[in-house]
């Protein structure tokens, strides 16, 4: 009996050693990538991803909030204008406050600011992104060995390259979404809804996950309603509605107050820029060499295509709101948006890819 206990303790200890080793390997890779180059380095006139992030911190720290998304003499929107939702802008502002000595308006202070940004990416990566992956694989995955899946999930080259290599913070919205999903399948619906609104208001690409989440919540409420015709179900739906509206209201209030909310929306959803601009590996850009979709169809048609691709999985999810159907629908929706939506950025594939590598139970 004592030998069995010792073996169990040894296995647990070994699992922890492997986990710590994987984390140390990740940190080593991140530090190595952080010492490398990045897109646009020393290339005028835009200077790449570092300059974009630095400029957003510069703008949000030095200008009043009503000018963050508005073209101005001190804020040329053609030069890395803010095009992400308010939570990204608030994050940029906080980073600017922390490192305010390095952020004089219209004064390039890149070299002295890079180390700060590299460290900030590492800190948020380990605080917001890694914990939900560990929690999800540890408590919601039934496949062994868990350390193998954990290693695959956190060592995904795409997010390391983009965030640690190119000064980006995609892991923040992805981490918040993973926490939201954990809360959702744990039946903490209100908290999950609030967290998902936060994720969406950090990166609008989280819209890719919104349809399955909405259908799952609606389906769960629908079947609960017919099983238990009580006032509690109405209160539950009303509580979700209030939580979502209040969270949006808090984040967007300053922009509505100053009358610039529409300017923010135009920057976040740039319908005026057409189907696509740069080269990206989605359906429309790939096959535009054969068929000129941009000149043949309007944006509304491409929205319909996305909905048609996602619809079958949503119907199945509504009929059978199981955990497996929910996960599959999230993947189908995120991939459909990447392949068939408009103004898709190449890094949007992270929305589908990170979801797949974090799951091993489809």
TrEMBL record:
Cellular component GO terms held in the UniProt record: endoplasmic reticulum membrane
Enzyme class: transferase
MF (Gene Ontology): dolichyl pyrophosphate Man9GlcNAc2 alpha-1,3-glucosyltransferase activity
Keywords linked to the UniProt accession: Endoplasmic reticulum, Glycosyltransferase, Membrane, Transferase, Transmembrane, Transmembrane helix
Protein's pathway: Protein modification; protein glycosylation
Compartments (UniProt record): Endoplasmic reticulum membrane
Topology with respect to the bilayer: Multi-pass membrane protein
Spans traversing the lipid bilayer: 17-38, 115-137, 149-167, 174-201, 207-225, 237-257, 299-318, 330-357
EC number: 2.4.1.-
Family membership: Belongs to the ALG6/ALG8 glucosyltransferase family.
Name of this chain's protein: Alpha-1,3-glucosyltransferase
Annotated source species: Dracunculus medinensis (Guinea worm)
Lineage: Eukaryota, Metazoa, Ecdysozoa, Nematoda, Chromadorea
